[in-house]
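User: For documentation purposes, I need each entry recorded in a consistent format: the amino acid sequence on its own, followed directly by the corresponding structure tokens. There are two entries in this batch. Please keep commentary to a minimum and don't merge the entries.

Assistant: Recorded as requested. Entry 1:
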Amino acid sequence: MRQKKVRKAIIPAAGFGTRMFPASKTFKKEFFPIVDQDGLAKPVILLIVEEALSAGIEEIGIIIQNRDKSLFEDFFKTPPIPQLFKKLSLTNRQYSQYLQEIGMRITLLFQEEQEGYGHAVYCTQDWINNEPFLLLLGDHIYRSNTEFSCAKQLIDVYQKFSQSTIGLTIMPEEIIHKAGIVTGNWQERNSLLKITQLSEKPDLDYARSHLHILGMKDNEFMAIFGMYILEPEIFDYLGQEIRGNLRYKQEFQLTTCLDKLTQDRGMIGYQIQGQYFDIGMPEFYRQTIIDYP
């Protein structure tokens, strides 16, 4: 089977960040600071971009609102003013130059109206241009438990099967109503799953009846890790739902289209050897500050 190279990644960052109000009223959550392993205070969006680059991604599209264009351009494409640059340490000067190099690989893509996660992904169709792509959430950061980054692990699995592949993680039943949950059949226990169904934020009764995976604890389910490798056919399903105005909780979702793609073409799930950190809600952001890296 011929390998398909994954060259592009997209990161949705066009939301209003309502769950992080009032901070998000003046400061986008994608720019909230996190201290990385190298000791640098980095905005969340930079950590996500670096995750993509660690997997060999060549081009990154960040989905934003028009009004945020200058913010992202200033960070990724504009060097510091001379007065600030002079005050930086040698290490930080070198990192500043590295940021400009990263900026050359970033394209800003626009979601004119905030119509949901699925709609944001759909807005990238022309830029993706019929290639498989890596999709990373704009409010998740990642830490691998192996020598390979989480994104690199997922790309390696995709290239083995040449089929849309979703990163997975074990989640306790208490919080599955906040996540996308999958079920399926193990191909390799605690590693590879042939997905048979995806459900967006299911209630517990439904999950217990329809989404539990054989061999897992009764109070645990398999959740989406916030990382995907998707074949371009996903845009066909997204387009159908958008044209038909098929919404879930007033928005166009990705998970419903992933489920349709699974039924028609199949989907692989891979249990990532690592951890994601959610910064999209105050209690999760606070815990991320404590636990990361």
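Entry 2:
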Amino acid sequence: MEFDTIAAISTPMGEGAIAIVRLSGDEAIQIADKLFKSIGGKRLAEVATHTIHYGHLVDPKSGQVVEEVMVSVMKGPKTFTKEDVVEINCHGGIVSVNRVLQHVLTNGARLAEPGEFTKRAFLNGRIDLSQAEAVMDLIRAKTDRAMNVALGQMDGRLSKLIRKLRQEILEILAHVEVNIDYPEYDDVEEMTHKMLDEKAHFVREEINKLLQTSQQGKILREGLSTAIVGRPNVGKSSLLNSLVQENKAIVTDIPGTTRDVIEEYVNVRGVPLRLLDTAGIRETEDIVERIGVERSRQVLKEADLILLVLNYSDQLTDEDENLFKVVEGMDTIVIVNKTDLPQHIDMARVRELAMEHKVVTTSLLEDRGVDELEEAIASLFFAGSIETGDMTYVSNSRHIALLHQSLHAIEEALEGVEMGTPIDIIQIDLTRTWELLGEIIGDSVHESLIDQLFAQFCLGK
């Protein structure tokens, strides 16, 4: 498959020590050669692959030096895209890296689309679709454990399992086809409903195993949407600041200080939390605060975890008790804050209202109880720990949806076996399962979906 030569800035924009402009394509080395003047006089077309060279980038028309650079030359197919790749390392200023890119584009390269380098790696057969998506997961990872999950997927751990399942189904389909098309062949074992049942049960069991990791995997990838709720002035913003370990939210003794939803990411025992500090939920005449309260109620409905904060030095109010009704049936941890102050809250009533929910007491002012809270969060979703070493986690929403569809298709095949449906009819559900699993790794996927997936990548990746 032949493509034109693309180029893009592969490092974040802004000031830094080094910036990189990457080229990929058949003319990558030729374009770089037009611009590069090495100190030793060597031409890039003549150098060995996977070597780096010091020199200057020169405007071929005027002969003026554009930048002092180090140029890496990597010849295909042993590159990320399986094409010739050149990386121009220059000084990390906005002006310098843009000047380099402009000269590269002026001399024959095209500006890459978002994710086009990874898309070429996929289209050229170096990685499959699930591995390509893992590249973005790796970039967006917010904890070490999330990064380990992405690395495992990039290494092809999920792909190997999916290919193994597809091969199992393919062997069943091939066996059925032989029985149907060549019934006169006595040396071919007949595919019976019993054999089909055994094979389909194996496939269903393996899909279920993958889906069992999906909740944890999705949390590791996307973060746990966590809403901090409570009456005004109970310490919600102090809790956010304590977990983030920065003063992100304004903390005062004035009720209603937080007017909108404040969002922050934080790593709690390897669990990435997307913390949402909400406006205190209460009846108010203040129009701006009322809008904030309505947004808080909406966030509450969409959250994976609720941190319900109460005030140790206040008696329980009707608003507090109403919040327990609002979070009923949700994963909730009740935090009784301000234990450094005299007790006025009825803890027995708090535990009665909390029912099965964990209750943690804290003094955020004196930094007490935060460790117990973090342990409670980790225990609630990961039984206190996360094993990522040997586990194949499914973390991508698209993969999870396709696995659910695959499970439904294989279960319909099993229902057909139990009802004694002719094997050639059951074959339709098996084929559907095979196709759905293929969509995960990109073996059977529409071009429009591929374009949509890679459009989410950053430029230069």
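Summary note for entry 2:
Residues 339 and 363 are 5 Å apart (CA to CA).
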